[in-house]
Design a protein that fits this description.
- The protein has helices at residues 2-5, 10-14, 16-23, 25-29, 41-49, 53-77, 87-96, 107-123, 132-148, 156-166, 171-194, 198-206, 224-236, 238-242, 247-263, 282-294, 299-318.
- α3 runs parallel beside α7, α8 packs antiparallel against α9 and α10 (156-166) runs antiparallel to α15 (247-263).
- The longest helix has 25 residues, at 53-77.
- The protein contains 17 helices and no strands.
- The protein has one domain (2-207, 220-321).
- It is mainly alpha-helical.
Length: 323
């Protein structure tokens, strides 16, 4: 199966859709009760439209498939690897569906769409003297993500680092980016103000609390071990990612690396501690692990790893019904 996704073919991109349905099949066989997460006003509006577990599962599948395709496009468009495949999208789908707490629809499944668009725009500013449009667009997409899930504010410093890494940092460029971030917030404020319910916007955007760690035990979160090992593996593989890469690609990979590091602090900005918060690192994680898979000398090894991970995910999904 993995060999199909290692090829730069249209069919491999199309097959990501049935693959997403397969990995999230549990949602359709055993529909979950609706779970309300602490999201922003835009997340609440979307949830208000999708009021059944089946509709939320369909929306989640559609969004994850589109995001996987966008990630593959981003890698191809920016030549982050020499060989163009659909593996990064496949890894993204696997990670976004790893455990039951990541199923249904949550703010990160929606917000990651805008984060991927944010990076696409930020990559365009590389050594461009006239980069105002791209910086504004990057900020605008990040502002939209904030309307969905406020802890995405942790990505704002990544945007500022992006200006430094991809271009020449200046007050003008910083203001162009921050103006883009503020624009969706302002537009929604005006909309709600004229409807005399602007308080809903502020409650929806800035409603977050520090997590309650009083009852936190590592035994309850043993599923974090694979994600932690994955992050450590990427950190120790950093030099390997940069070898035989152009300066432009190195800078773009650096930016994704910084996002991975900053995203680790997301739980400290969310009052809700759940596995779905890990999905914020899915984009950079998929890009880097995709590079590791491409460096494997034998396809059999990659196929075996994929099979073990896929079977492990199915075991996690369906084992709760064995009792």
């Amino acid at each position: 199966m993995l060999k199909i996704f290692r090829q730069n073919l249209l069919i491999s991109s199309i097959l990501l859709l049935p693959y997403t349905i397969l990995v999230r099949l549990h949602d359709f066989i055993f529909p979950r009760p609706l779970v309300a997460h602490d999201g922003g006003i835009l997340y609440d509006l979307i949830i208000g439209i999708c009021k059944t577990s089946v509709s939320q599962s369909i929306l989640a599948v559609a969004l994850i498939f589109i995001q996987a395709w966008m990630i593959n496009y981003t890698i191809s468009r920016n030549r982050l690897t020499k060989n163009f495949t659909s593996l990064a999208g496949l890894i993204y789908i696997l990670f976004m569906s790893a455990c039951i707490d990541m199923h249904g629809i949550n703010p990160i499944i929606i917000g990651n769409t805008f984060i991927i668009l944010f990076f696409q725009e930020l990559f365009y500013i590389y050594k461009k003297p006239r980069s105002a449009m791209y910086l504004f667009n990057a900020g605008f997409y990040l502002g939209m993500a904030l309307l969905i899930f406020f802890p995405y504010v942790i990505i704002v410093p990544v945007g500022l680092l992006g200006i430094l890494i991809m271009n020449v940092i200046s007050i003008k460029r910083i203001l162009q980016f921050l103006l883009g971030v503020a624009t969706p917030l302002y537009l929604f404020f005006v909309l709600f103000y004229f409807n005399q319910n602007e308080h809903q916007l502020w409650n929806g955007i800035f409603h977050f609390n520090l997590p309650d760690l009083a009852n936190f035990t590592l035994l309850n979160y043993y599923h974090l071990i694979p994600a932690g090992l994955g992050i450590l593996f990427i950190i120790f593989s950093y030099n390997g990612y940069m070898q035989k890469q152009s300066i432009q690609v190195q800078n773009k990979l650096d930016l994704l690396f910084w996002m991975l590091l900053f995203s680790i602090f997301t739980p400290f900005l969310s009052g809700e501690i759940s596995y779905f918060l890990l999905q914020i690192i899915a984009f950079p994680l998929a890009v880097f692990l995709h590079i590791n898979f491409m460096q494997l000398k034998h396809d059999f090894v990659g196929g075996l790893i994929h099979l073990v991970i896929l079977l492990g995910i199915f075991a996690l999904h369906f084992s709760v019904h064995l009792g």
